[in-house]
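Limitations

Structures in this collection are predictions, not experimental determinations, and the ligand pose is part of the prediction. Treat each record accordingly. The example that follows, with zinc ion as the small molecule, is included so readers can see exactly what is and is not provided: the inputs are given verbatim, and the output is the predicted complex.
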Amino acid sequence: MKANAKWTFLLAAWALAVALPGMRISADPNPQVKSGVDRLYVIDCGDGSGLDQSRWTPGVNVGTPVGFPDHCYLIHHTQGWFLWDTGVDDAFAQLPNHEKVFHEWGPGTGPIWRKPITLAAQLKEIRVEPSDIKLMAVSHSHPDHAGNIEMFPNTLMLVQRVEYEWAGSRQDTIALNKKHPVKLIDGDYDIFGDGSLVLLSTPGHTPGHQSLLVRLPETGPVILSGDAVHFQASFEHRYVPDNNWSKQASLQSMDKIAAIIAKEHAQLWINHDQAQSDAQRKLPAYYQ
Ligand SMILES: [Zn+2]
Ligand SMILES: [Zn+2]
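Predicted complex:
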């Protein structure tokens, strides 16, 4: 009960904060500064499937199976490599059929994750060593995003303070290793100070969920969703999974993303959207 009271308080404090007028992104693009980002790789970080899509779209597509791809993104900045999300655990590649069934809230409630190709193998393919990666962040502490954090034990991880404290408190999350070097963030954060990579605080799916705005020189601005939304239809119709931490915060975060898309003509790359994934080029190809 004590923990619940704490999170209820945090939710109330958050609601008060976002109710203030003039929601603002703390790192608007600065036309005087050249973006330091020059390359973004989309990496296959798991091949998921679910028996019932309505687990993520309550009341809609009940009983319809769904493909559920999982991605990591490696971004090159002139100041170093940055890894966004780490996917499902590479160790699943060693299991029979390379697969693991998740039972988040009982049998059949979680996706089945297949891992035919590992994150480690894909980094090797482009000759990037884990120790080459200067900074990393995961969108949140679910195992399909935080599964390989300790493949990079010396890489500084940027994490929202509330997520850092909350992670591991529910059976569907991963407790973060407290020995891992971290920088705790409160809200939006301009990673390299040039507006090219900006963490966006998008709570709701989890209390410290974050998304990433990447301003690519040729592709233009792209928002990497994390699980702020799960599918394109979820964004268009504002579907919120029942097990999200806060429905209200989830909806506000979707509105925040929509406002940035409208202002910057940004693209929204949804981590688990099958149709988007099928159309994207994957490592070793990249976006500029
Ligand atoms: Zn999640
Ligand atoms: Zn996810």
